[in-house]
Amino acid sequence: MKSDERWSISLSLSVAAGDGARQPGGITEVAVLAYPVVLQTLSDTMMQVVDTAIVGRVGVTELGAVGFGGVWLWTIVVVFIGSASGVQTFVAQEFGAGNARRCGFWVWQGMYALLPASVLWFGLIAVGFGSLLALLGPSAQLQGLAARYAQARLCGAPAVVAGVIVTSFFRGRGDTRTPLLATIVANVLNAVAAYSLVFGRFGLPALGVVGAGVATAVANWASSAILLVFLLRRPLVEAFGTWPVGPDWRALRRFLWTSVPIGGQWVLDMLSFALFSSIIARMGDASMAASQVMIQLLALSFMQAFGISIAAGALVGRYVGAGELGAAERSHRSAMRLGLGLAAGIAVLFFTAPELLLRLFTSDPEIIGLGRPLVMLAAVFQIVDAVGIIVGGSLRGAGDTRWPFLVQTAYAWLIRLPLVYLFALRLEAGLLGAWLGELTYVTALGVTWLLRFRGGAWRAMRI
What we know:
Blueprint: H1 3-12, H2 27-56, H3 60-84, H4 86-96, H5 103-134, H6 140-154, H7 157-172, H8 177-199, H9 209-231, H10 234-240, H11 249-281, H12 285-321, H13 325-352, H14 354-358, H15 365-397, H16 402-426, H17 430-455
Helix pairs in contact: 1-10, 2-3, 2-8, 2-9, 2-12, 2-13, 3-5, 3-6, 3-7, 3-11, 3-12, 4-5, 4-7, 4-12, 5-6, 5-7, 5-11, 6-9, 7-9, 8-9, 11-16, 12-13, 12-15, 13-15, 15-17, 16-17
């Protein structure tokens, strides 16, 4: 065996330890691959959580503005981020098929396909973001703060896309620790910069919500730079062909055919969620602030499911590429057991300490009163949501991306928004009613996707 082949196997099969002692697709393999991803996704979420916690000390409207602006900003950028995550499917299947030196090739095809268009799109959005928010009807003060916060964060959006492309390469071949390292560094930088720029510490100006946005943008660029340095290290160039290559138009078409439905699925789902948030924003700044706290608490829980889904997708893709469909299915089942076990533990915390969790973000009695029943609901919500998130990762790993895109789009617009409107406004259940509508939607989606995977259509798919 050549030295680069030995390096490839030792570097990328950290989940298997190379000794066959662990069952392919077993819960140990999933857990060892997943835990750095869980830590990374939690660390990614911490950027928004830190912004929320810091800005929450400034005022209620500022807290609502970070939530409202952040939701609409994510809606705008997520089509590129979702499409970028498709790199993982190609890398995992190439690696599983024994084509290690072909893995790096897909990083650069992803860059060519997505970065130029994303830079143009983000520039246009930066100009028109304030006008977009004005159409949605929040209070004038919340609207202005949300626009300035989002415009500051948009400066880092191209770095986010590039970072997801490179991260997807590392995850696809089984290295989940390198992205974690980059994210930890970025989070430390974001926390220090946000505190300094929001409140004007260490000789820096006090920029309020804009300072939180600037800090996150700087952290995004730092994270992407670290990932790129790792990508271009000589051992990876030799083992996985990560040095830049030119565009391959046939490969670009293959990449877009599989990856764009992921981005489309994410953006249309997020658009309906952003409209859901806009309905809440019309209920008042306090309701929007309470909903933002709910979202951040859920993020700390569902990001664990999201991390496990990434591990599931990497393993399913690897075993599909190797033709080991039994191991692919076993990986999915193991991921589901692991994710639901963690979700059950979080549910206990949400049920037993709602007020303590709320006080991490605010001491305002009105927000705590509105948020208490939401946190109780979140205990159930995050368990149901974990099912859909994890099975969605398994489907993506197998290359089944177009059918989930169509189903999620239909459910978001035919179930989510009508039920939110019905419960919150027509039945006058307010903020809690809106979240009950959201719970119904994620339940229907998770059950449908689970039936899809169990039906086995993914077994015959090729990308």
